[in-house]
Structures are given as structure tokens and as C-alpha cells.
Specification:
This protein is of the alpha+beta class. Helix content is 15%, strand content 31%.
Length: 232
């Protein structure tokens, strides 16, 4: 079987099919990520946000438009075993599932972890599985897994090039199970039409996470976190 016909099934290590159903955000190494909201800090000015599309057009990230309609399903073709995804001729990002055929219960209108396959030229080195938060048929958020310390600094530099100087950033230190120390950069961009949070290392040194939300989705997540914090 040619690699490009099944590439979407991997999508850099897709979540299981259970995560493709509406539910909680995917856990990254079993460590929850809280949104960082920083008051009394500078906001990105117009020159630094020059690469950001206006709110009406949505915010483009990895070739996926947040605030825009859900991308199409990845193309399929028939094989001896049924149907398989084929990404050789696609010209845009698309969504996929683990199964050869979509689960009839799959909710693509409201889903908190729908696997997305970006185009190869829109996937920076070090990024892995990408899942979308879909609300009423529109992409309101993205969760992008990364390979942790391996490309943390490179990814941070690319984000700074795209988004400008972060609203807030810091670099912590993570110690592995064998005592090795790794720098863990973290940054937040609070832009007029998007919230971006970069976590260089999450849980284990070979895992990181980038979250990207529309303003509406950020508000939903903050409300959800506040509600969870008050419950046992």
C-alpha cells in the first residue's frame, strides 16, 4: 500500500477514534493545559500583527482558517479492503478519522477533537497530531501536539516570526526521569482575533502543545475552566 494513501491515518500520530467524538479536549501525556491570561501587559500592536488576517476573514494557522467553516473530509478511494484515505492530490487541509469509513456517529458539526491533516508545506518540523474544535460547523480552535524539547526553540521562533513579540513569555526548566535538564519555553499571544499559547514541554520532555483559539472559543474555555475549578 502506497505511503501517501494511508498518510492521513497517521497524521503525525492521530488521536484514537474515541477522541474524534465530541467530548473533552485531548489529554497530552495526561497533563491538562490551563489558559494563561495576563492582565496589565502589552497587547500586540498593529505592526506586529501585520501577518494576522482581519477578524472577518478569520485567522489562518497551519493553512487552517479559525473562525471559518470546517475543512472538507480527506479524499478516499476504494481498495481491496474497502476505502482508504488518499492525500496525494489534495490542495488544502482536510479532516480524517482512524476508520477507513467515517463512523456514522461522528459529529462533524460540534466536536472537540476532530483530527485534521494540514498540507505538508504548512506543517512545521516538530509538529505532530492536529485536532480541531468545531462549533456549529466552524473551526473555533486547534490543538497541535509537538515533539517537545527537540524543536521547541525553533517552533517558538517561527511563531514569533508569524505573530510578532509575545504578550507574555518565560522559560522554565524540566528535569527528566534520569536527571537531565531541559529548557521549556512558554509564550502567549493575545491578538485581536486569536489567542495562541505555546508550551514547549508538557508532561514529558518529548511532548509539547500549541493551542490556538478564536476569541469566542477562548471565552468558552475560560468559562469551562472556572466551572471545573469550582467542582469536585
Amino acid at each position: 500500500m502506497e505511503w501517501w494513501k494511508v498518510a492521513v491515518l497517521a497524521v503525525g500520530g492521530l488521536m484514537g477514534s474515541a477522541h474524534a467524538q465530541s467530548g473533552s479536549l485531548p489529554e497530552i501525556k495526561r497533563q491538562a493545559i490551563g489558559l494563561e491570561s495576563h492582565r496589565n501587559v502589552r497587547k500586540a500592536d498593529a505592526s506586529e500583527a501585520a501577518g494576522v488576517a482581519d477578524a472577518a476573514a478569520g485567522f489562518e494557522f497551519m493553512g487552517i482558517t479559525l473562525g471559518g467553516p470546517l475543512v472538507r473530509e480527506c479524499p478516499q478511494e476504494r481498495s481491496y479492503s474497502g476505502y482508504i484515505y488518499s492525500v496525494s492530490s489534495r490542495d488544502s487541509a482536510c479532516w480524517a478519522t482512524f476508520s477507513m469509513r467515517p463512523d456514522p456517529r461522528l459529529n462533524v458539526r460540534n466536536n472537540r477533537a476532530l483530527p485534521i491533516a494540514p498540507l505538508d508545506n504548512k506543517r512545521p518540523t516538530g509538529t505532530q497530531a492536529v485536532t480541531a474544535i468545531v462549533v456549529n460547523g466552524r473551526i473555533e480552535g486547534l490543538n497541535v501536539q509537538t515533539d517537545g524539547f527537540r524543536h521547541a526553540n525553533e517552533l517558538l521562533e517561527q511563531l514569533q516570526k508569524k505573530l510578532g513579540r509575545p504578550t507574555w513569555q518565560e522559560t522554565g526548566e524540566v528535569v527528566s526521569g534520569v536527571g537531565a535538564k531541559f529548557a521549556s519555553p512558554k509564550a502567549v499571544w493575545e491578538l485581536p482575533d486569536a489567542y495562541v499559547q505555546f508550551n514547549g514541554i508538557v508532561g514529558t520532555v518529548d511532548a509539547g502543545l500549541i493551542v490556538v483559539y478564536t476569541p469566542a472559543q477562548k471565552a468558552r474555555e475560560m468559562a469551562r475552566q472556572a466551572e471545573n475549578a469550582s467542582s469536585f
